[in-house]
Amino acid sequence: MQKIKKYGNVAIGIFLVAISYNLFFSPYDLDTGGISGLAIVIKKLFFINESIFIFIMNFLLLILSYIILGKELTKNTILGSILLPLFINFTENINQFIVIANLDPLLITLLGGVISGIGYGMLFKNNFTSGGTDILNQIAEKKFKIPMNLSMIYIDGLIVLLGGFIFGVESFLYSVIALLLISNISNKTIIGMNQNKVFYIQTKQYKKVIAYLTQELHYDVTIFEMQGGFSEKKKKLILCSVKTNDYYKVKTALNYIDRQIFITITENYELLNANLMVPKKERLTFKLL
């Protein structure tokens, strides 16, 4: 039952992305990056069907992913890589049934960004991707140690710039607005609306993790002494409340510090912290021993 719900959410998410693509982005030349954004440019230049181009590129990138990233990292990309071009093809004529020609271009951009952002959020929340440049971002992270958020800026940014060169400045500006909305809404869908997340961290690189959280990011941490229920070994648990905006940065950095790190992340509904009034250099690290 859980798997049915999971795959159902993935399918709905991709369907929303496809609707947004054919209703808002493609008809108005809004290049929001990725292979789907590149498909809009290719259609304009060479009159190649968008869904066919996306399918071919996703197929080639899946092969590249399998070779470089391996089976485990590739398997959650296959479904999205196949369904996205299929759903884009299926909803290709949706603008014949839903007419939005008289809407303001900014409203079209906002609606497209919100709907597509929710769709991508549902996809990413279930640990799936839509393929395309997501694969290139994963390769950049694994092979070249480039954080995924930076590689997304480089790769998708170049595609958006190409769209701006082909379609003009006005289209470029609307595309940037849509891209920012997609990023923001998808993040909110994945990690929620609360301002803080609580990280519970178990790691063998104990000192490095503490140094990163306290010295580089200036977060307070609480350290618990605990005992493993099965092994009965003494361990330390690091607790840290992290701003939602730093969620991905912290999670990515901790995985670089310790590839075998164990992290549990929960919502933080309220944060009462006297140290917020203390200068960063004077903040304390608390220990409960």
Note poorly predicted spans: 276-289
Distance between the termini: 43 Å
How would you sum up the major sheet? 5 strands, mixed
Mean pLDDT: 85
Shape: elongated
> What is the topology, as strand order, of the major beta sheet?
4-1-3-2-5
Strand content: 5-15%
| Secondary-structure element series | HHHHHHHHEHEEHEE
What is the number of helical segments per DSSP (H or I, 4+ residues)?
Answer: 10
Helix content, binned percent: 55-70%
Rg, please? 22 Å
Overall number of domains: 2
Q: How many strands?
A: 5
Supply the helix-strand structural class.
alpha+beta
Topology of helices and strands:
Layout: H1 2-25, H2 34-46, H3 50-68, H4 71-90, H5 105-125, H6 133-144, H7 148-167, H8 169-191, E1 196-202, H9 206-216, E2 222-227, E3 234-243, H10 247-257, E4 262-268, E5 286-288
Parallel strand pairs: 2-5
Antiparallel strand pairs: 1-3, 1-4, 2-3
Helix pairs in contact: 1-4, 1-5, 2-3, 2-7, 3-4, 3-6, 5-8, 6-7, 7-8
Question: What does this protein structure show overall?
Answer:
The protein is α+β, with helices and mostly antiparallel strands and 289 residues long. It has 2 domains: 2-191, no CATH class; 196-288, Alpha-Beta Plaits. The protein is built from 10 helices and 5 strands; from the N terminus they run H-H-H-H-H-H-H-H-E-H-E-E-H-E-E. The protein has helices at residues 2-25, 34-46, 50-68, 71-90, 105-125, 133-144, 148-167, 169-191, 206-216, 247-257; strands at residues 196-202, 222-227, 234-243, 262-268, 286-288. Strands 4-1-3-2-5 form a 5-stranded mixed sheet, covered by helices on one side. A hairpin with a 6-residue loop joins strand 2 (222-227) and strand 3 (234-243). Helix 1 (2-25) runs antiparallel to helix 5 and helix 2 (34-46) crosses helix 3 (50-68). The longest helix is centred in the first third of the chain and has 24 residues, at 2-25.
